[in-house]
Write a structure and sequence with these properties.
258 residues, alpha/beta, seven-stranded mixed sheet, five-stranded parallel sheet, elongated
């Protein structure tokens, strides 16, 4: 007979804003709570240097915000575990989560695995993520008001978000590896006909660099093999928005119902 003390009231898989918020509510309700995260506590927002659209907070560093929320969860008694969940067994009144650090059991399991952007792969992408490189126009467009912006991608999201970014940016350049925008003509035409948007076909961004912020970008013309260098104005920077694809699938683990 399994000891009751070894069973959690709730296990949460994923320690982004949703997972941490759920942990606060559970733990504050005196539920024994385990929060499992395989990567960085806080999720994608923890990589954002300036968060200006979080309710009740005017401006804050994403990592600082998520550290504060993590402390709230821990103060109410949430237990944090850095591990990778590989299997969830949901049969019966007591469920189980198998991880690379052991198996844990609970009466309830909450999946809060979030989403992960697909990286473009250019040099400097990881270094400047959250400080020039972003994957969300709604989140970060205002940070690049009056600045040059590059959009990477040739589909619906790239075209639609480029038009949105043009409301704020000085100019938007869409870099497409193919010879056309792959989406509905009505959406593509809005980008193609916009006075502040330039579309560069057969072009990929291969590198960005600078100091603490991006100061230059290097584009590669896949047909002519020419390299084009963009340099931001003195003491200024620019933005790179990646919209090649977004994975919204949960992180890889199996779910067993019986």
């Amino acid at each position: 007979m399994e000891q009751t003390a070894s069973i959690y009231d709730g296990i949460i898989i994923g320690a982004g804003p949703a997972g941490l918020s759920a942990a606060i509510y559970l733990a504050r309700a005196k539920c024994r709570t385990l929060l499992i995260e395989q990567a960085q506590i806080g999720g994608q927002i923890a990589l954002t240097a300036d968060v200006a659209n979080y309710p009740g907070v005017t401006h804050v560093d994403g990592a600082v915000l998520m550290q504060t929320i993590r402390q709230q969860a821990e103060q109410f008694g949430t237990e944090l575990l850095h591990a990778s969940a590989t299997n969830a067994v949901l049969e019966g009144s007591v469920k189980a989560v198998q991880t690379d650090r052991g198996t844990f059991r609970a009466r309830s399991i909450l999946f809060a695995t979030g989403s992960a952007p697909r990286r473009a792969g250019f040099l400097g992408e990881a270094k400047y993520q959250g400080r020039g490189v972003t994957y969300c126009a709604t989140c970060d467009a205002t940070l690049f008001a009056g600045k040059e912006v590059f959009v990477i991608g040739g589909g619906y999201a790239a075209a639609q978000e480029a038009v949105f970014l043009a409301k704020y940016a000085k100019h938007v350049t869409i870099c497409i590896r193919k010879d056309r925008i792959s989406c509905a003509k009505s959406v593509a035409d809005r980008a193609l006909q916009h006075p502040k948007i330039t579309v560069r076909y057969h072009t990929e961004l291969i590198e960005i660099g600078g100091d603490d912020l991006p100061r230059y970008a290097i584009l590669h013309d896949c047909q002519t093999k020419e390299q084009i260098r963009y340099d931001a104005p003195p003491h200024d920077t620019f933005g790179v928005f990646v919209f090649i694809a977004i994975s919204r699938k949960p992180r890889c683990f199996r779910i067993s119902l019986c």
